[in-house]
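TL;DR need structure tokens for one chain.
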Amino acid sequence: MPSSMFHGFNPTLIQLSETLTLRWSGAAALAGFLIAFVWLKRQAERGVGPFTPADVSGFVLFTGLLGVLVGGHLGAVVLHQWDDFASDGTLAFLFRQSGTSVVGVFAGVLACAAYHARKHQRPWLQVTDALVLLAPLGLLLWHLAAFTDGEPLGRVTDMPWGVRFPAELNRDGFQPVAPPTLDLASLAQAPGHELARLARENPRFEEELLRILPPRHPVVLYEAALEGCVLLALLWAVRARWPSLPTGVMTGLFFVLYGGLTWASAPLLEPNPNLPLSYQFEQGVLLSLLLLAVGAAFLLEVLGQHRVTAPTPQA
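>> reply
TL;DR here they are.
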């Protein structure tokens, strides 16, 4: 297998200074906010959707900062670092010391949508119906950016597109496929992209990595394809086929489809018993079940109300 099948992405896109960097995750967030602004602005100018042209820029900024960034950060703190947060509340303000929680992002965005709907006296589900059509693009960008970090790992595979992750050398409990012939102790803390660079420059080291690293499913790319491309196509196909669905159906359908698609990729994730239960929750079937339950609740509520308010046919 050529060295190009090593995962060699650097999660840092631009090194602005010794302390300031732009990571791929940050660039993905900026691109997502820009796409949301352009699409919502055009829809508003056409008189479609719950926004006026004057609303869009403030809503995107408000939802991007509070819903996505703050919501994702606080979700990660509460779910994954609760004990540390309970003893040191300042952790809530240390954005660089936690990751991003998908549960926190969804909670934050839904809260921002509710606030906007209440402030402008619009139906909340009308706002969320507009946002879920954009959400798959955000998930696509998020997963593509996450792939540069090389986590989470997929299961071992013999498929020709399997990828070897040099950063796995630094993972607790790493079991090489074959006994190493080189002393790799000095590289124990090296980031994966540096190890991949060394492999490209040193054929002997490349051969060693090919021997000891198992090829794995690039499961994050599968998630990008399913939760980004497939989910986007399904939602827009439904919207085009049934443009007059009751308000809220698209929101419920999004969560149901998203939950089902996350379930489809979950079996290909490599189990990591060293991860806390909260991390395993956000990477496994339990998250899929939560999403399916949320989507079903939306659909049952919306369709139930629609049946109640539907006009009774005249005899």
